[in-house]
């Protein structure tokens, strides 16, 4: 089997300005944050970002990386709104395709099936159609029903974070919800997966049943071992959301001076520096509580 | 027992009533009062409904209020998000959702306030509201009934109202009731919002005054009170910490 291990910098070096990138996970859950942080460090811009969005969207939009956003929502789950995204939205100027969640998944499925569109009831009668003038409806050839024809959401690159992988890119999701990460990979030309841990293939079933092997290496271009790579979003069962840090992110994002300080403290170095800064953040909080 | 019933408890019983003829389907409930209402329905008149933990699991015994399956309860099925959209499409689901705006035909907005291109306030987005309303019964829970919420026309139709559904030919569209801290509303033959009942202790004029479109509440009956059995379940079994009373403003005893 091929050895697909690589570094964060290798994966991001193959992404070009103007590309369409899909980001797996859901809200503030199992987002490939280490890869997102590597994107922030790059000079890549004008991306079209496809996401059921969380802080991945807020961070990339605030850093000026995004020309166009295709999304079902942007939320931090335990905190309903991401202030970086809402600020960008209220400033205007972002090109947007906001879909109903089910429509979004239909678009992924169309791309994964190599169809130009798939029909769905979701969206009919709503202002999602008015807000997305590119969307067309289609009459059923078999009845008098009419459906939204959701265009395929194809991507150049999909970015995913997983619990485990082998060196060949057989991907394992150990948490309660695989979200739509398998569809992203099938809808993309290339897929990079960051993972908590790379294990020998024969050990993949040590921690979960065969049902957890939902993404085959046939869809995976490269795997990157990044412990805590989803931080501060969830990566169940390895770790939950770092709620304290998420609160700090939100409070900082609401104030320009505080945001500059946040950037300097957490986002100015590489991934190891980020993880070290998070450890310092928690150590200081603990000290001040004693 | 019934001499200190709160508005929240009346609303919980009204939410529970939504499931009276549901049978075996997934009860999706957003908010504390609707969540308690669904659990109350399962413990009383509708034992067959299927509860979720708000994450990926169907629960025959739900975990403690506000907690996921990881913290207890009994899992009876797995429903990660991909399965949820499949369930929505089969129609085997009901939702009680919230709203930032609702108009007189039940069009609901949770997406944004102002103009789409440059909103005054970006809210949560349309989320699943268009798909939910196109596929299965949807009810709304409004903790603060106000003229800013019940408006002439909404800024972005997320959940589809009766007029829009008819025009779009949606066969599975079904708006049930709107439960607020003042009243229970439903829809007339022509698809317009009307008053089904006003909560005990609420002046019907208050309902009219706090609605941004014409709404006559003068001849409405009173909303039913929870029974003693229901109160016992709400207070001792489902929500011993009283989270319900924190979701509704001025949780005064009314009866």
Automatic annotation (TrEMBL), chain A:
Q: What Gene3D superfamilies does UniProt report for this protein, alphabetically?
A: 3.30.30.40, Glutaconate Coenzyme A-transferase
> Which Pfam family, an example, fits this chain?
CoA_trans
Question: Looking at the record's lineage, which domain of life comes first?
Answer: Bacteria
Please provide, alphabetically and separated by semicolons, the GO molecular function terms listed in this UniProt record: CoA-transferase activity
Swiss-Prot/TrEMBL keywords: Transferase
Does the keyword Disulfide bond feature in the UniProt annotation? no
Instruction: Tell me what this protein is called.
Output: Coenzyme A transferase
TrEMBL record, chain B:
For this UniProt entry, the molecular function terms from Gene Ontology, in alphabetical order, are:
CoA-transferase activity
Q: Does the keyword Protein transport apply?
A: no
Regarding protein family, the annotation reads:
Belongs to the 3-oxoacid CoA-transferase subunit B family.
Pfam families attached to this UniProt entry: CoA_trans
The record's keywords, sorted A to Z, are: Transferase
On the tree of life, the source organism's domain of life is Bacteria
InterPro entries (alphabetical) = CoA_trans_fam_I, NagB/RpiA_transferase-like
What is the protein named? Answer: Coenzyme A transferase
Q: Which PANTHER family match?
A: ACETATE COA-TRANSFERASE YDIF, CHOLESTEROL RING-CLEAVING HYDROLASE IPDB SUBUNIT
